[in-house]
Task: structure prediction
Amino acid sequence: MNNIQSYIKEHKERFISELVELLKIPSISADSAYKNDVLKTADAVKTSLEKAGCDNVEICKTDGYPIVYGEKIIDKALPTILVYGHYDVQPPDPISLWDSPPFEPVIKKTDLHPEGAIFARGACDDKGQMYMHVKALEYMTVTNQLPCNVKFMVEGEEEVGSSNLAVFVKNNQEKLKNDVILISDTGMIAQDVPSITTGLRGLSYVEVEVTGPNRDLHSGLYGGAVANPINILTKMIASLHDENNHINIPGFYDKVEELSKEERAEMAKAPFNLENYKKALDIEAVYGETGYTTNERNAIRPTLDVNGIWGGYTGEGAKTVIASKAFAKISMRLVPHQDWEEITQLFKTHFESIAPKGVTVKVKPHHGGQGYVTPIDSIGYQAASKAYQDTFGKTPIPQRSGGSIPIVSLFEQELKSKTILMGFGLDSDAIHSPNEHFGIFNYLKGIETIPLFYKYFTKLSK
Amino acid sequence: MNNIQSYIKEHKERFISELVELLKIPSISADSAYKNDVLKTADAVKTSLEKAGCDNVEICKTDGYPIVYGEKIIDKALPTILVYGHYDVQPPDPISLWDSPPFEPVIKKTDLHPEGAIFARGACDDKGQMYMHVKALEYMTVTNQLPCNVKFMVEGEEEVGSSNLAVFVKNNQEKLKNDVILISDTGMIAQDVPSITTGLRGLSYVEVEVTGPNRDLHSGLYGGAVANPINILTKMIASLHDENNHINIPGFYDKVEELSKEERAEMAKAPFNLENYKKALDIEAVYGETGYTTNERNAIRPTLDVNGIWGGYTGEGAKTVIASKAFAKISMRLVPHQDWEEITQLFKTHFESIAPKGVTVKVKPHHGGQGYVTPIDSIGYQAASKAYQDTFGKTPIPQRSGGSIPIVSLFEQELKSKTILMGFGLDSDAIHSPNEHFGIFNYLKGIETIPLFYKYFTKLSK
Result:
């Protein structure tokens, strides 16, 4: 596959412009106002798979947004790789913090991306990383170098919990049969430090509602005499962490995997500079659970974060009101062995139990998923490692990610195969944030590395 | 003045329709989008004063919204009453909870208002109660029964702190010279229990901003490792009350007036039914400072309430983000002798001091005002008491209100005269809330009672 570089060089501009077109469609799955755009994106993905050489490409209906499926079966005797990605994106809020409109991609150079980066919502998560696989397939089919069978499954509900994908996978085990699952929806440590994600955190996402009086009240006439739902909500949320930032929910830590000294020492080898980290975020100090390092806090430890809070008067000026209701969106990142449904129940029971008289509390589970760990001695991991060695000249570092891809554990359970997470994004790519971007270098490096995974995985499978 | 009833009977429909027209103008002083409507309302008030017989009516410019001034001087030897009111209203949010549009007044009968009530923002606070005085003046001038001099001062910034009124009063002491100030911007205990407000709480209103990382972050990649501004804000706000709902700000209670057993016993005589109170608000229990009754908590004790809170993703669905900033609007109701500027400074110093490393905090004072107490042995109080006795057949009960009319203490300081608070609204009129209303009975009873105050005040002044 030594002509991959030249193929990329030759088609670079087209590779970029095709991705830019895909990024222009605001496929925000969380907001029903964008329904048509999400569906439009599914069609665009279907077309791109056909052009790349996939057969039997279809848009599979679900109770939510459709799943785009396509395959290229060259020989049933050869191994099959199932590529997963998602075409939906996070909401771009807060829009005002974007330097350019989130759905009008622009290419700009940055310190970390001297070759330029594409700025747009979804550039990295996950349209850009998903599209690397489409272009890698194009290369292998056009140059007749596809060494094994491949199946694509691209969904449109990853950012809202993939609940319909779960159903789809359960009902299509034969169709999705594979020897390894390949996903690019994570990051790597640095441009010159390739890494393979070997662990993911689980997730439990809930929304809480605290109701006090049956109507908004004048804070002068009622202030001090009735429970103020916002004050109560702050008290309840604050009580969820103790003075060591340990989570205060009975049973929450019961199944948490405690890593050995050796494992923690291994993790500590990953290059990390606390000063640069703080500088990049413009914070004076990091903050988290006592007794753990920053890299441990965001990878091997569970968390509880408020993702949104609202209640009362939030407009211009002042309104002296006691709101009838207050709300918060709260997510918990879970580590392997913590069951997200069990944790969601523990949260619900506890949160309802700490509500004082004078308010009523509703806890509405949004979605969730299990954590995941993959062994580094599998054929898949070895193939990925060799691929990176060829393109980066370095052995990739196995890395635990703090993020969640809930469906990975589902795949293992339903399809009985391991997932290899080859991420090419950087933490600084600001996924889920304003000014999300994806480096041209990373994009093309992914297209270059993926076919090598196919090659080595096929070889090692013999 | 025994023909006042017949005059009201004769002009009732017009009195109501004129008020309805005034209520149609959305004079929301807190929201600059309504600037023209606020100004339009000032013009409408000017016209109404002229029609009611006022001389020298003028719209006095300020750095904010104008103050409408008018007067009727019949004899410099006679006492002068200064009537104060405001033509601006609270924002109607949340609009969705209104049964009818806030600025399209409708008249509906309710259990408490069998003769009907006008539903609209400002119906009671304060357009309705202010307009009672305009109609009372009309009656006295038309029937040639005005017993003394009268001056009107109607402002458009009461709901946002009256800062420009303060300047106006300081600069116009001669013009505003008076023997007593008369205000209807409070309530009475019940339809059949007239009361005169003898105390008001002061106010300090601040907005706080907590900033963590310089951008929104992915809660998976950073969750647990950096301070989440929303979690921190909830912790900081929660810490402002102790387990007895005592406010946790050093020095906050230093100047709080402690009432004697006798005074508290006197207060306790006011008719109050806790079960009905809870039922009306649809709450299982009241909530407040340990050791005080509901009526004490909302009248003679200071409070700290969050009036609004926001941060992160508050839209539909789920977004796994750690927000860069979180905000809250917080107001403190103060009791006599607490200085609002001093309390604001105490809050600022304390709130900034409890911010953990990893976040920065800004405290922005909005506005405030002092508390107020008026003696019940003054001529003004006696005149008001007699007026109520004539129209309600009962001696009104002196009552401490939990609300704030910051300018009352300013009037005493600058104009050296006492204020009499003759309120005709009910707590259930939902001022500052959706479905604010004002009873037709209350509106007309006010118009009937006010001229009697003029009569008795003039008599007692001799």
